[in-house]
Amino acid sequence: MVKQNTSIVIKKTKEINSTKDLQNFETSIRPIAIYNRPKHIEIKCKNSEDVNILKRTFQDKNLVVEDKKPQQQRLIILNISEKIPKEKILSIIKEDLNLKQDDDLIQVIQTRKTLSKLNLYNLIIDTPRSLAIQLLSRKFVFVGLAKFRIDKFRTIRRCQYCQDFSHQSENCPSKKIYCARCARNHKTEDCKTTKYFCINCIESNRDGAQFPIEHATYDQNCPSYQNYIYYQNN
Ligand SMILES: [Zn+2]
Ligand SMILES: [Zn+2]
Ligand SMILES: [Zn+2]
After folding, report:
1. Nearest ligand to residue 181 Cα
2. In the structure, what pLDDT confidence band is assigned to residue 113 with cuts at 50, 70 and 90?
3. Which helix (H) or strand (E) holds 124?
4. What is the CA radius of gyration of the chain?
5. Environment of ion ligand 1 (residues, CB < 5 A)
6. Beta-strand (E) ranges in 82-155?
7. In terms of domains, do 15 and 34 share one?
8. Does 181 lie in the same domain as 145?
9. Which of 25, 38, 39, 197 counts the highest number of beta carbons within 10 A?
């Protein structure tokens, strides 16, 4: 079940600029909470009927009232076989969540081929937070006997100077610069290569990993990057 909307948002204007300015409005509704946000005032109500009454009250006074948009969460479903199209995955997710098939609450952001030779891809989706919580608690999407891990999608920043994930360029301890594309010692924007090598995977392999290295450090399927996300989460 999708949670009903129980909040409204009033855009701040000269007349309505703080929660105090709402005191002059007469209404029978008793909100649960009122939040003063930088650009708007948010009123949380008991239920959607209260929301509708409040909305009418404010609209009669010519205020700009909007429903609060549900907070979105970006998720990633990992290592799906290319034999299973994304439409199939989406349809199963909707079924699991008791959504209608034509529901547009789940949006595909991207599909990304992984570096595996097995022809796998990752599927990145946006869903309202309430649905994301349900999906994450299942940990997997089951397609017949196959299962695919579902996880929060995280973007991780990388040092622009040495390409390491553990710090930013302002605090870079490295004496040498490394190119994000070819792993040589020059600025990435000066690079003219068409053949990519990943300095992070070259370094990981020095420590005994056996990662493919022919990709850029910004490739989301870089095994060193994936490893880093994994250790951040566990
Ligand atoms: Zn660095
Ligand atoms: Zn280069
Ligand atoms: Zn790499």
Report:
1. 2
2. confident
3. strand 120-128
4. 24
5. 159, 161-162, 164, 172, 174
6. 107-113, 120-128, 140-143, 146-152
7. yes
8. no
9. 197
Residue 24 in any domain: the answer is yes
Between 227 and 99, the more confident residue is 99
Q: Which ligand is nearest to the CA of 213?
A: 3
* 110 and 47 both lie in a single domain: no
Q: Which residue has the tokens 């300015």?
A: 21
For residue 159, tell me if it sits in a domain.
no
Instruction: Give the mean model confidence (pLDDT) for residues 15-33.
Output: 83
* Domain count along the chain: 3
Amino acid present at 54: L
Domain boundary among 51, 67, 83: 67
Distance 171 CA to ligand 3 centre (A): 22
Percent of the chain residues past pLDDT 90, beyond the cut: 47
pLDDT digits (tens, 9 = 90+) for 170-187: 999 999 999 999 999 999
Between the CA of 167 and the centroid of ligand 1 the distance, in Å, is 6
Domain C-terminal end among 99, 118, 152: 152
Q: Which ligand is nearest to the CA of 163?
A: 1
The boundaries of the domain holding residue 192 are 169-233
**b/e map of 4-13 (b: 16 or more CB within 10 Å)?**
eebbbbbebe
Q: Which of 62-66, 87-91, 209-213, 222-226 is least confident?
A: 62-66
